[in-house]
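Q: Predict the bound structure with NAP.
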Amino acid sequence: MSLFKKDKQEDWFLPEDVRKQLTETFQALKEPVHLELFAQPGVNDEFSDYTAKFGADLARLTDKITFKRFDIPSDRAAELGVTASPTLCLNPDDFHIRFLGAPLGEEGKSFITSIMLVSLRMNGLSEASLSLLDPLDEERLVQVFVSPSCPYCPGQVMHAVKTAIARPGQVKAECVEMNENRELTEKHNIGSVPHTIFDSGAHDALGLMPEERFVVEMVYLKSAEELLDEGKLPGVEGLQTATGYGTIEPGAVDLVIIGAGPAGLTAGIYAVRAGLKAVVLEKSIVGGQVSLTPVVENYPGFTNVPGKQLMDIMSEHARQYVPVHEGEGVESITVGDPARDEPIVITTARGEYPAKAVILATGASYRKLGIPGEETYFGRGVNYCASCDGYLYKGKSVAIIGGGNTALTDALHLKNLGVNVTIVHRRDEFRAQKSLADSVEREGIPVLWNTVVESIEGDGRKATSLKLRNVKDDAQTELPLDGVFMAIGQKAATELAKSMGVKLNADGYVEAGPDMRTSVPRVYVAGDLTGGLQQIVTAIGEGSVAAMSAFEDISHPYWKE
Ligand code: NAP
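A: Predicted complex:
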C-alpha cells in the first residue's frame, strides 16, 4: 500500500518529497520515539501550530513515532517543568532532549537526527569524547541558542543531544530558538549563534566547537584554554573529530584535499572519478563561505538559491564519491622528497594520512576591522554572518560595513527580514555588482558614503553605537544601533600553504599556473586561496583542474622527467 497514492497533499503538512525521504530514513528506526509538544495558547501560536502539524505528520509516517500535544499549564507540563511555548520533548521519561521553539530550517536536521539517535539508543560520540565525559559526576544543563538559518547551529545542538543520550538523567540538552524565546535570549545576552550556555551561565561558548572540546568544557565548565593553562588537560587543544557518514580511518591515500567548500568538494568528485583514493578534510563544516551567503543568484542553473542549500546539494553529490571528514582540522604537513617517492604526510588529531599529492582548498575567512570595541562586543552586537545572526535583529537597527558583494547581499537579506539596515562604506561608490547596487537603491537602504568606523561603543554588555568619521571633511558622528555586521572582505587561509614553503604572490594569495600546480611539486591549489575573481564557479573550475593535474602527476611525475 503506498502512502503517497492514497493520501492527498492537502491532508498533509509536509510536502510529498520530504515525506518520501523521511519514510526512507525512518526505516532504520528501532525503539519507539515519543514526541510530546507543550504549547500555551496565545504564545508563539504560529510556531506551536507548525510544530503540531510537523509532529503529527511524523507519527503518520511510521508506527515507531508517537505524538501527543499538551497545554501549558497542565499536569504533564508541571511534571516535566516545561514552561516555554512551544517545547518539543523527545522521550521525556528517558531523556532530557528538548527543542524550545519550532525545529524550523536548519534545526529540522538536528531534530530528525535526534529522533534517529534516540530510537537507536546510540549516542554517536567518538571514543575520545566518551573518555573525556568519564569524569562527569554532576548534572549539567546545556542550552544551545540557535537561529533557523544558521548552518553551524545543528552541529552544536547535536553535541548537546549526544551527551544527553550518553548520560540520561545527568545531561539535559535544550535547543533554544532565540526568536521564540526572547526573554531567555535577552537574559543570556545572546548576540550571535550558535551560543551555548552551560548550567544557566556557569560557562558559555560561542560558535560551533569540535565535539571533544564541547565535552571537556561541559564537564569542567571552563574553556579548554583555561584548562590547558592550569595544566589540567594536556593534549586537549585542537582535538577534533570526524563526523558524518562516509568516513575512512587515517592511512595511506593518493590524494588529500584540504577544505570542503565548492573547490574542495569538486576536486573530490573529479579525483575519485579519475580513480584516485582521496579524502576531503574540513576543520569546520562543509560549504565554506557560500554556506553563509543568504542568497546566490549567479550560479548557473539556479536563479536564486540560499547558499546553504546549494552547498547541501553539492556536498550530498560529493559524498557519493569521496569521504568528507567534517571537524577534522589539519595540524601539520610534512613534504617528503618526491624524487625518492617519500609521501606528503598530513597530520590531524585522528592520525596521519601519507599521501601522493595534496590539494589546498582552505578558502578564506572574514577580515576584521581591528578597531576598538570589535573584539569586546563580538557576539554581543558585532557579527560577521548575516544569515546566521540576522534574525536576532528583526525590528532593530544595524549597520553593515563594506561596499562589496557580501555587504550588499547581506544588507538586502537583513532588510527582507525586517531589520532597519544602514550601509557604511568608505568610498563614494560600491565595489559590488551593479545589479546588487540597483536593488539596494530600489529597497531604499540608506548608505553613509565616504565614512569609516573609528570604534564600536557599548554599555559593557552589548554594542550600542558606532563612532564614525567622514573621510572627506573629517566630521565625526555617532550612529546608535543594536548591532553591526562586518562585510569588509576575506583573508586567504594561507597558513598551511606557507608551512609547506608554497610560494605566495604579492597580494598574499597562493601562486599557481593555469593547471593549479603550486611551486611545490605534488601540491595543488583551488578556490579563494588563489585570489582573483573568487566566485563559486571559478572555485569549482579550479577544483576540477587541480584534481586532474594531481591525477596526471601521480601517473606521470613531471619532477622525475
Ligand atoms: P570584497 O569584494 O573584497 O569587498 C570588501 C568591501 O569592504 C569593499 O567595498 C571594501 O572597500 C571594504 N573594505 C575593505 N577593507 C575595509 C576597511 N578596512 N574599512 C572599511 N571598508 C573596507 O569582499 P566581499 O564583498 O566579501 O567579497 C569577496 C569575494 O566574494 C568577491 O570576489 C565577491 O565577488 C565574492 N562574492 C560574490 C557574491 C556574489 O556574486 N553574489 C556574493 C558575496 C561575495 P573598497 O571598495 O573601498 O575597497
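A: The domain at 382-488 is CATH 3.50.50.60 (FAD/NAD(P)-binding domain).
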